[in-house]
Amino acid sequence: MAGAVAIDTAGGMDFRRALGLRPSRSDIERFRALGAWRAETPLDDLARWRQETPDSLAIVAHRAGSGVERLTYREYADYVDRFAGALYELGVRPGRVVALQLPNRWQVNALVLACARIGAVVAPIMTTIRPHELERVLHRLGAAVCVTIDRWAGFAHAAALAKLAPRLPDLRHRVILGDGAAEDEINFCEFERPPWERAHADALNRLTPDPDRIGLVLFTSGTSGEPKAALHTLNSVHAAVANYADIFDHGPHDTFATSSPVCHAGGIIHANLIPLLVGGTAVFMDVWEPARAIELLAETGTTTLWGAPAAWAELVAELRQRPRPLPALRTGGAAGTAILAPLVADISEMFALTLHAAWGSTEAGGTVTRPDDPPDWAARSVGRPGPGVEIDLRGDGTITADSPGRVYLRGCQVCLATVGRDTGEVVVVTDHDDGWYDMGDLAVPDGRGGIRILGRATDRIGGSFMIPVADVEAAVLTHPGVDEVAIVGYPDGNGGELVCAVITSRTTPPTLDDIRTYLDERGMTQWYQPSRVEVVPELPHNETGKVRKELLRRWLRSKAQLTT
Q1: 167: Cβ–Cβ under 8 A, 6 or more apart, which residues?
Q2: Burial group, residue 549, by CB count within 10 angstroms (0-12, 13-18, 19+)
Q3: pLDDT at 459 over 70
Q4: What does the alpha-carbon distance between residue 159 and residue 163 come to, in Å, rounded to a whole number?
Q5: β pairing state of 145-149 and 173-177
Q6: On the CB side of 473, how many CA atoms lie within 13 Å of its CA?
Q7: What is d(CA 431, CA 297) in angstroms, rounded to the nearest whole number?
Q8: Which residues form the AMP-binding enzyme C-terminal domain (predicted)?
């Protein structure tokens, strides 16, 4: 089977040209015939529910300290139209990039759809990304508009963006959600109040959303260092959305909650596009608080919850400490390469729920366990792919637990191309290896058409989100007390990984607090930073001079077991 796209890229390509990539006509026809892609867009879903169930709840968004904001489908659709008009007023046109760096607020959902209405490309960025990384992301995107929060989690995002703006010539407008905006900024209330949908009605009505043009740019740290932008169409994302909706038989009766950031691929899928596709209700919190989450899930009658294993573990711990009535969940899932068996058992006991596992990448979609799998399957497998997605396990000889295969995916969920954040290198997926995308993980067959992940093929670190190892190593190495450093992952106890800096030092070695303070001062994203430091006389190297990180990982795991 051919790859997800087939595009002529003769002559090389830069980011702007890459945004014009499209799937081949044969792939469009094939994936539509499978039901994975469609001729419609999420805007058609919104129009349907606006007409059929205008007073049904579309979004329930909890704001810490401020209560809950609720939008009906009529209100939701009206805001999408208004925001599209506001963006058009700012000069946003088809193919231009709009960056969003916002917490879990309902405005994110509406802005994603507003960009689709115009044919603009939306680039969600999590609020944990700090100026050092943000500048490189915005520079690569050439974003014309950036919408951000005034201040969040103690960090002044608007002020930080203002400092970057003179070095970002493509950035024409900064839109601030919050109380204050400087003279050269736009307060978001100017998006919400004026009737922009009427001011630009004719122009907007002439635009036709296209599900097969690139509509989303989702940044990921990738498998080996430089973060990459994954260029997705609305349909390549819809393929994952439709797969979940079909597997779990979702419908208008469902209320969907997630602990994921809505400015991340997982949040876009579970807190925006799945509820919208089936006419259900999306529930999310701007600050994840397990105690309040349990109350909110019960209050809203949430039926489906997806979150990181750590979020599920927090809910279990909270309920054990303070038992109370539970939400009537019928579907629950967690994303990651490994979900611990005790957590699966705890959720089964406490929620009377079979936990499902999902695995994949921002670039290429992935797999999910099914209702017909054994009840504890999430602890033994990450499931199987949906229609239009293939898996290939490659190795030397027979694939076994002792000799796992490297995982490759291709098909309807794979992005059209990736773009290096720093190098700008454009890699069109179907130009390489017949469209097979290297996932960077090692796995074995699970016996039910899916796979079981056994480990990393490279030195990836992370749980739901991956750490850009090369970036962190380069930053730590500039500390005057560090001579050499290797950034290595170690288990966090919830199926994910935390960051350890293994360093050598000929002087007084820095402590963990020293290193984190040093990185904070340089604008390094906090969840990239080490949570553990180990000082060694020397790092192990191979014959070519590369650090043997597999030895360090083994040592860290053994040391963790000995000290716990």
Answers
A1: 135, 139
A2: buried
A3: no
A4: 6
A5: parallel
A6: 20
A7: 45
A8: 472-546
Which stretch of DSSP H or E encloses residue 186?
strand 186-187
Pair type for strands 255-258 and 228-233? unpaired
Encoded tokens for 190: 């100017």
Phi and psi (nearest 5°) for 310? -65, -35
* CA 113/CA 215 separation, integer angstroms: 10
Cα–Cα distances in angstroms (integers) from residue 281 to residues 218, 251, 270, 288, 293, in the given order: 24, 10, 11, 18, 16
356 closest CA partner among 340, 335, 342, 341:
335
Q: In terms of C-beta distances under 8 Å and separation of at least 24 residues, what long-range contacts does 274-278 make, across chains too?
A: 274/241, 274/244, 274/245, 274/250, 275/58, 276/42, 276/45, 276/46, 276/49, 276/58, 277/42, 277/45, 277/238, 277/241, 277/242, 277/245, 277/250, 278/245, 278/250, 278/251, 278/252, 278/254
**Of 101, 97, 77, nearest in space to 87 by CA:** 97
pLDDT in tens, 404-455: 889 999 999 999 999 999 899 999 999 999 999 999 888 899 999 999 987 6
- Domains in the chain (CATH in brackets) are 234-416+437-457 (3.40.50.12780), 469-563 (3.30.300.30)
Backbone angles phi, psi at 420, to 5 degrees: -65, 130
DSSP run (H or E) holding 232: strand 228-233
CA 42 to chain centre: 19
Give pLDDT tens digits for 149-187: 999 999 999 999 999 999 999 999 999 999 878 899 999
Distance from C-alpha of 128 to C-alpha of 141, rounded to nearest angstrom: 18
| In the block, residue with structure tokens 């105690």 | 291
Q: Is the pLDDT of residue 564 over 60?
A: no
Task: Say what the pLDDT of residue 462 is.
Answer: 61
Count of Cβ atoms closer than 10 Å to residue 193 Cβ:
11
CA dist list (Å): 85 to 198, 507, 564: 8, 59, 57
pTM for the model:
0.86
Mean pLDDT of 358-378: 95
Q: How many angstroms separate the first and last alpha carbons of the chain?
A: 49
- Cα distance between residue 113 and residue 109, in whole Å: 7
Q: Report the run of H or E that residue 85 belongs to, with start and end.
A: helix 73-89
Residues composing the chain: 564
Q: How far apart are CA 332 and CA 335, in angstroms?
A: 11
Identify the sign of the CA torsion 527, 311, 110, 107: negative
Residue 226, token pair as written in the block: 């430089």
Closest CA to 495 of 290, 321, 342: 342
In this predicted structure, the answer to whether residue 9 has a pLDDT above a threshold of 60 is no
Could you tell me what percent of the chain has a pLDDT over 70? 92
Mean pLDDT score of the chain:
91
Local structure of residue 271 (DSSP, 8 states)? I
| pLDDT reading at 85 higher than 80 | yes
Least confident of 126-130, 339-343, 351-355: 339-343
461-488 confidence digits (pLDDT tens): 665 555 767 678 878 988 999 999 999 9
